[in-house]
Design brief:
By secondary structure, the protein is α/β, with parallel strands linked by helices. The protein folds into 3 domains: 191 residues, 3-Layer(bba) Sandwich (FAD/NAD(P)-binding domain), CATH 3.50.50; 133 residues, FAD/NAD(P)-binding domain (3-Layer(bba) Sandwich); 71 residues, no CATH class. The protein contains 9 helices and 29 strands. The strands form 8 sheets. The protein has a 5-stranded parallel beta sheet, covered by helices on one side. A 5-stranded parallel beta sheet has the order 12-19-13-14-15. Strands 24-22-29-26-27 form a 5-stranded mixed beta sheet. Helix 5 links the parallel strand 13 and strand 14. Helix 1 runs parallel beside helix 2 and helix 1 packs parallel to helix 8. It is globular.
Length: 420
Amino acid sequence: MVKRVYTVVVGGGPAGLAAAIAFYDAGGTDVVVVERDQHLGGILQQCIHNGFGLQWFKEELTGPEYAQRFIDEVEKRKIPCETGTMVLDMREREDGTKSVYCLSPRYGVLEYQCRHIILAMGCRERVRGNIKIPGTRPAGIYSAGLAQRLVNLEGMMPGHEIVILGSGDIGLIMARRMHWEGAHVKMVCELMPYSSGLPRNITQCLEDNHIPLRLSTTVVEIHGKDRLEGVTIAAVDENKKPIDATREYVPCDTLLLSVGLIPENELSKTLCIAMDPVTGGPVVSEYRETSVSGVFACGNVLHVHDIVDFVSTESTIAGRAAARGGKPLASVPIQAAYPVRYTVPQRCSLSEPFTIYWRSAYPLENGTVVLKINGQTVLKQKFLRVVPAQMQELFITEKHLETLRGYELSDAQISLEVEL
């Protein structure tokens, strides 16, 4: 079956829902949301802890409550949503339109022919194979997100003697969750000399529950045949290599891995979209349009966010831009100068005020972030402390744009640097 629509939103999580709502409110009424799960809401369905919505709704919500606010708005606008529908492929046609091929329980093989696509597929967790921990392959090794689903949605406990590798936000939250469910969380180990989670989660999840955090420490071996019996941990040196003299055996029946997230861009690559090797997502303009005209990206498929409020803000930008018809990928590149790890957007048109989001490569204190064009300083913003876990914002006003436009943009290059 072939259906023709103006815009297809791939993904019914917080990013896809916010983009669809913004598209509709900007005057674009012909849109459909395609979601592979049986329910809308994405990962927020299993995030039953609070802390969501402080910026977007100005109140504290749980993940399901946050998602339901957007689901209600989608239903109020009667935006069609195809759940249980898997997108298999996407192609650009000779006339510039796009085809999105789906497998639907209602229609079978379904092709959407559209003008625009908004990519909002989210991300997936890194697993043991990504970090190559040696040892046996017993039961009891889970990603933190899978453990979260088992406990919060399925009512199952993965284990009772827990070691967590990685101090990402999901790992920190699951440390607290497992502790509250009666498990003994022995420690959270982190390869880096600093936590990769938000400071508030370190305080609320670990310190408030007296769960130890072992920095510059990793799991070097897994033990057990049928069921996990223990892990060997070791401190690492400045090159992240384990120090043999510090090896320590820790008995446990469960190992949770919170070792990073990977944007789900297998579908994006079928459209030959230019990708950023640092973020793992597409290269976009300030309108979140990719290198393929009419294709937009937002949320964790673009880059991994620390809070969902940023996802909603970014997705609103993409939805509005799609409703306006989109613009070609802007010509002026934005270069991230180390220790700025990356910026989003990576290119800009300088047509209207916008926000540059950026992350640091390591913790920074008492510095200044500097925006330059062809080596000339345009904007400075001081900071007291910046950590990799927290995304930073730099707002480019109309006044800044006037300065930037004074250069020959065909040869211009904008850079974001840090002075300490």
